[in-house]
Specification:
The protein has about 600 residues and is of the alpha/beta class. The chain folds into 3 domains: about 260 residues, 3-Layer(aba) Sandwich (Rossmann fold), CATH 3.40.50; about 160 residues, Thiamin diphosphate (ThDP)-binding fold, Pyr/PP domains (Rossmann fold), CATH 3.40.50.970; about 130 residues, Rossmann fold (3-Layer(aba) Sandwich). It is built from 25 helices and 17 strands. The strands form 3 sheets. A 7-stranded mixed β-sheet has the order 7-6-8-9-11-10-15, sandwiched between helices. Strands 1-2-3-5-4 form a 5-stranded parallel β-sheet, with helices on both faces. Strand 10, helix 20 and strand 11 form a beta-alpha-beta unit. The longest helix has 19 residues.
Length: about 600
């Protein structure tokens, strides 16, 4: 009975087993995930919760011919292991290894690339409609979505369409009452009632009202029940909905008890589940600088409110929630709603701090333009995880924000160089700005130990000179300045360079730029976002508008998607680490026209 997983290299091997062997396989698969993630790190709890479902889906359905989409993909580790990636699973999220999320270019079993939530139903519906048009009506189309993700507006839009489509789709609701933080909202409360009162499932059922064949809720860890119900649903045509109850972190006691921490726990002991102690870091994470500062400000300014779309812990807005629960709002996975909610609050004189990861603000672009900027409402956007974020890869890098925001009228855009600047811009922003402002800051730790200094006001649109040199001017924005300073420190001829932190990409410090362009022949811009349309492009536009003919070089991220790996590895790949910058800067000194 033992070591079934060792004999399985693909789903063909899996389908040779007897149903009675599947519980043993599920046990081994769960242990394998724990064993690898304990030392390699990654997302743990979500995948542990769907092990039985993963095994049964690949056992009963003809994947990859039948199309299976995992919403977000935090829950897809078992799926990857069973679909030919077991032997390379230890490279998961590592530089050059397999991705932490399903990826179409990685495997034919990954029917759709997922990294942002609530996309699975729309994608599967599109696939099912395509199958109908091609005459492949027997093909199965399955989406697995969590109770936090299904509360998103996009998921409801897809359900609304799918219910009248007659498409052959199966939506499996993985209901564990938690996303990254505990699920919130009226739908979550309804699902809780359904679990305790089966009459609701039969009678007053929201999903049935949308024309789905609803079944459940059933125990998502009971393989026999899953096999029976999924076999039945295979023969049912049209839109189907299976509601299963699971436990996030199933099989590891610590992960079951602390589901928030063990969503992505870092390294831990695979037997006890205890997280391994890390070296004490004297520095503070930028998210905690935000979290601690907003509490400090909210204590003095009762108009301050905090808003986040399902990222209370990740944004450190939970610090405010713990102290001011009535002024802190977790709206669930609903970025569009979060932005317009903040706009509505701003119309009534509140001071909304809307904290959204940079990559997720992309999902609310219209709301930023139409509901906030067009009406010139002073919403304070705090864009966590800006720039390269590391192992989560292309779906999570916050590298487009400068480019997609700077074209919006009325919007101020600021990137702090360090923790003190972040603290001071938060203070400045809540003092009665007449425009919306976007404040972008990176994932991870800063480099100042004692950052909690007395507040100082920041002059909007004012840049600063960090180093005055002779020949070449380096212009930067945000925390990439530390890499530049390190690079200059490695050079024996750094006195040839001036270094300016422009602070604001919008409005630009026109007076400072005129001084720079007048006194330096060569200008180099450096940013941790995409070059196309970003900070460097803004400087090129300034030069053109003012008829300057200086030599201008723009450094930043290239015009392609950056994959996963440590931030250092990724910066080195694109030439933004200190040593690469040193070499690049040296090469410019050697050019005759410098």
């Amino acid at each position: 009975m033992k070591n079934l997983l060792g004999k399985i290299s693909n789903v063909t091997d899996l389908r040779k087993l007897e149903v009675s062997q599947l519980p043993q396989l599920a046990k081994e698969l769960r242990e394998y995930i724990i064993d690898i993630v304990a030392t390699k790190e990654g997302h743990l709890g979500a995948s542990l919760g769907v092990v039985e479902l993963t095994v049964v889906l690949h056992y009963l359905f003809d994947t990859p011919n039948d199309l299976l989409v995992w919403d977000v993909g935090h829950q897809a580790y078992g799926h990857k292991i069973l679909t030919g990636r077991k032997d390379v699973f230890d490279t998961n999220r590592q530089f050059g290894g397999i991705a932490g999320f399903p990826s179409r270019k990685e495997s034919k079993f990954d029917a759709f690339g997922v990294g942002h939530s609530s996309t699975s139903i729309s994608a599967v519906l599109g696939m099912a409609i395509a199958s109908n048009l091609k005459g492949a009506k027997e093909k199965q189309h399955i989406a697995v979505i969590g109770d936090a993700s299904i509360a998103s507006g996009m998921a409801f839009e897809a359900l609304n369409h799918a219910g009248v489509s007659k498409a052959n789709i199966l939506i499996i609701l993985n209901d564990n009452a938690i996303g990254i933080d505990p699920s919130v909202g009226a739908l979550k409360e309804y699902l809780t009632k359904v679990k305790s009162d089966k009459r609701l499932a039969i009678q007053n059922n929201i999903i049935k009202a949308l024309n789905f064949d609803y079944s459940g809720p059933i125990d998502g860890h009971d393989i026999e029940k899953l096999v029976l119900e999924l076999k039945r649903l295979k023969s049912v045509k049209g839109p189907k909905f299976l509601h299963i109850i699971t436990k996030k972190g199933k099989g590891l006691q610590k992960a079951e008890e602390d589901q928030v921490t063990y969503h992505a726990p870092g390294k831990f002991d695979k037997i006890s589940g205890e997280r391994l102690k890390k070296e004490i870091n004297l520095y503070t994470k930028y998210q905690d600088v935000f979290g601690k500062t907003i509490v400090e400000l909210a204590e003095k300014n009762e108009k301050i409110v905090g808003i986040t779309p399902a990222m209370l812990t990740g944004s450190s807005l939970k610090l405010m929630f713990d102290k001011f629960p009535k002024r802190t709002f977790d709206v669930g996975i609903a970025e569009q709603h979060a932005v317009t909610l903040a706009a509505g609050m701003a119309t009534q004189g509140l001071v909304p701090f809307c904290n959204i990861y940079s990559t997720f603000l992309q999902r609310a672009y219209d709301q930023v333009i139409h509901d906030v900027a067009l009406q010139n409402l002073p919403v304070i956007f705090c864009l966590d995880r800006a720039g390269l974020v590391g192992e989560d890869g292309a779906t999570h890098h916050g590298v487009f924000d400068l480019a997609y925001l700077r074209c919006i009228p009325n919007l101020i855009i600021f990137a702090p160089r360090n923790e003190i600047e972040l603290r001071n811009i938060l203070y400045t922003a809540q003092k009665g700005l007449q425009h919306p402002i976007a404040i972008r800051y990176p994932r991870g730790y800063g480099n100042i130990v004692n950052w909690q200094k007395p507040f100082e006001n920041i002059e909007i649109g004012k840049g600063i000179c960090l180093q005055k040199g002779k020949n070449i001017a380096i212009l930067s924005i945000g925390t990439i300045a530390s890499n530049i300073s390190e690079a200059l420190g490695l050079m024996s001829n750094s006195s040839n360079f001036s270094h300016y932190d422009m602070c604001f990409i919008k409005p630009l410090d026109q007076n400072l730029l005129k001084e720079i362009f007048t006194s330096h022949k060569t200008i180099i811009t450096i940013e941790d976002g995409v070059v196309k349309g970003g900070f460097g492009t803004a400087i090129l536009e300034f030069a053109a508008e003012n008829n300057y003919h200086n030599n201008i070089k723009t450094l930043g991220l290239p015009d392609n998607f950056i994959e996963h790996g440590s931030i250092f590895n990724l910066q080195h790949t694109v030439g933004l680490d200190a040593y690469s910058l040193k070499n690049t800067l040296t090469s410019y000194l050697q050019k005759k026209d410098a």
